[in-house]
Amino acid sequence: MIIVHHLENSRSQRILWLLEELRLDYEIKHYKRDPRTMRAPRALKKVHPLGKAPILQEDAVILAESGAIFEHFVQTEKRFGPPRDLHDARRYRLYMHYAEGSLMPPLFAMLVVNKLGLLGRPARKPIMKMLHEHFVYLDEDMADRPYFAGDQLTAADMMMSFPLEAARSRAGLDERYPNLLAWLRRCHERPAYQRALERGGDYAYAG
Amino acid sequence: MIIVHHLENSRSQRILWLLEELRLDYEIKHYKRDPRTMRAPRALKKVHPLGKAPILQEDAVILAESGAIFEHFVQTEKRFGPPRDLHDARRYRLYMHYAEGSLMPPLFAMLVVNKLGLLGRPARKPIMKMLHEHFVYLDEDMADRPYFAGDQLTAADMMMSFPLEAARSRAGLDERYPNLLAWLRRCHERPAYQRALERGGDYAYAG
């Protein structure tokens, strides 16, 4: 049995989406953020010492880290992996790592800086500039295809969903980047995405 | 011909290490950080629109994003990839993504917060706490093996080198975490690591 340890408004929403796309059976254990720190609650540490969502439990095996969980299922289910076309496969590999490697750090820094309130103000402009550069690059890169690695949805899109949804909700991803908004709509219209949203509960970033 | 577009004191140092371990021929194009912003110089944008190191050029093909570059060489050279042992392969996958997905965001946030000087002070403590939790977890996880995915060096170690070197140099990775320091020494003693250091030039984090 697959159990997803799912934290509200977090990266684990995309694991639910993946499992719905794969039509696998799974259970969700729901966790709420600590209302003071907004971090994952201590209960998650009992499942895995890192104590962060997503954590996936499959019988006795515990898997952490979104990218690693995606690769596990791409390998076992043989779906949503790298396309055969060499260019598309390269894009797949790029975006599988870019989501967390390049796009999340400025988004996370923005979260930290926003918590500082007025004190954080001097840092906000350079981070927004950095994010804008990412969005311009991504928007151009998505001008000629519906999904990040070509014509079909892959794990790379699902990996990219969380940072781009977070960016849409609170870090300047707006109408200036129409290809990215069209991609987001395309993802959100998928029945599997909607089923994942229903099962996951609170998710502030799908709007 | 392989060309590494290499930025001083950056993630691209680990690409040089990989290429030295693989004993591949390559050229380095050196880039200096902008002395004011400490970010990559504009010249890197001419190579790839993301404009960040590492960028790898192999004939007409341009690859960006450390994780994607590592996977490319693991696939083409069939070395330093996931071990055969199932547990070790799982660790390999975890750490390939954890390096940037979980460990770099608080390190990057610390960099941003440090630039704020006194203003950033309230944010420093929670970030250091977060990093300490990572180090405790990693140090325990490394108690019984020399490398992150078992007995042999893999791409996962090379991916982990940059965040842990940065942490050693400026984010509290010290004698409280002896297994991590032993791992760092083990990496730094490798002849390929030392050759990469000689060829790469300035690298503040290898000490």
UniProtKB/TrEMBL annotation, chains A, B:
One Pfam family this sequence matches: GST_N
Gene Ontology molecular functions: glutathione transferase activity; peroxidase activity
The record's listing under PANTHER family reads: GLUTATHIONE S-TRANSFERASE 1 (PTHR44051:SF9), GLUTATHIONE S-TRANSFERASE-RELATED (PTHR44051)
PROSITE patterns listed in its UniProt record: GST_CTER, GST_NTER
Q: Which reaction does it catalyse?
A: RX + glutathione = an S-substituted glutathione + a halide anion + H(+)
The domain of life for this entry's organism is Bacteria
Every copy of the GST N-terminal domain together lies at 1-81
Show the Gene3D superfamilies listed in the entry.
1.20.1050.10, Glutaredoxin
This protein's species is Sphingomicrobium lutaoense
Q: Where is the GST C-terminal domain?
A: 85-207
Say if the entry is tagged with keyword Transferase: yes
Keywords, A to Z, come to: Transferase
| Its EC number(s) | 2.5.1.18
Query: What is one term from the GO cellular component aspect held by the record?
Result: cytoplasm
Q: Report the protein name in the record.
A: glutathione transferase
Against InterPro entries, the record matches this protein to: Glutathione-S-Trfase_C-like, Glutathione-S-Trfase_C_sf, Glutathione_S-Trfase, Glutathione_S-Trfase_N, Thioredoxin-like_sf
